[in-house]
Amino acid sequence: MDPLEMISSPTATRPMLGMTILVVEDSLFASEAMRLLCLRSGARIRRADCLRSARRHLEVYRPSAVIIDMGLPDGSGAELIEQLSHSSPRVAVVAAVSGDPGAEAAARKAGADCFMAKPMTSLAIFQRTLLSHMPPEYRMTGPRPLSDERVQPDPVAYKDDMAHAAELLREAEGDEVLAYLGQFLRGVANCAGDTALSAAADRMDRARAGEAQLRPELSRLAGMLQERVGERLAI
After folding, report:
1. Of these four, 25, 121, 132, 144, which has the most CB atoms within 10 Å of its CB?
2. Which domains, from first to last, does the chain contain?
């Protein structure tokens, strides 16, 4: 453990005091949930929104744990998971997170120590998942109460994600961008419980595969994104 991290000792209510967590996540809404979970747990947080940014962070410092979204704008999170799982010295915990249940197998194969399913809002599950894989010096001995608290990310972050998705859709050139956009929207919609948007992303993907006409689906999706950017969201 970094000597500087020993200055702060974990407590029953803040069991991650002294830890620094790098969250590699492209969604502002999902990142806000992680920020609140870390804050309530006592951990410091740094964020990267893509593989390239994450690697720049890791050149400068070594966090206690890294939480990596499986779908990122410049590649799969599995790439970074595999890199970190074979690095020396190794980050104590390499965790994967995704709204796609099928992503867990790929994350485990790449070397992830644990997997968290989106939406991740439970403080108890977040703490238990990470701390159970941390070295003994990071863990408190003896029983401690588990919080039943759930974090609620700021809806403004969701609105920002919708604005970003709308911009991607306007400038989309080629199937690769649309494939990423569908993945991004499903992940964000899953975190926010926006089933209508998730269904629209699925319809776009089916149209991309030739099951329907693509242009009408893109037009409908653009309208839904603009509605969400302009609304006062109550999530």
Report:
1. 25
2. 3-138 (3.40.50.2300), 155-230 (no CATH)
